[in-house]
């Protein structure tokens, strides 16, 4: 395999300015999205309070567990559950 000389990278002032402007823009979008989420959570909680049948009293975590089939309840450690129904 041939070895070549490392490529020289130069960071220019324009590049840093562009990076800062893009970074500020992304931060402002994130702040706007967070504000909308906070307002959206408040309105959705008000709506669920008015119509309780929509969420059925389940938390977000419970809904996710139900959707993926996760059952966090451990099985009891009794002899039949450990060894099954063994008959001699």
UniProtKB/TrEMBL annotation:
One Pfam family cited in the UniProt record for this chain = ANAPC_CDC26
Q: Which InterPro entries match?
A: APC_suCDC26
Protein family per UniProt: Belongs to the CDC26 family.
Biological process, per Gene Ontology = anaphase-promoting complex-dependent catabolic process; cell division; protein K11-linked ubiquitination; regulation of mitotic cell cycle
Q: Where is this region: Disordered?
A: 28-88
Q: What is this protein called?
A: Anaphase-promoting complex subunit CDC26
The residue ranges flagged as biased composition, category Basic and acidic residues, are 57-69
User: For bias kind Polar residues, which ranges apply?
Assistant: 78-88
């Amino acid at each position: 395999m041939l070895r070549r000389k490392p490529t020289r990278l130069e960071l220019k002032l324009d590049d840093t300015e562009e990076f800062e402007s893009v970074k500020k823009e992304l931060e402002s979008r994130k702040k706007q999205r967070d504000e909308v989420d906070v307002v959206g959570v408040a309105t959705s909680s008000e709506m669920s309070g008015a119509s309780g049948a929509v969420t059925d009293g389940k938390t977000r975590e419970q809904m996710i567990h139900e959707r993926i089939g996760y059952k966090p309840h451990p099985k009891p450690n009794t002899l039949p559950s450990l060894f099954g129904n063994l008959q001699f």
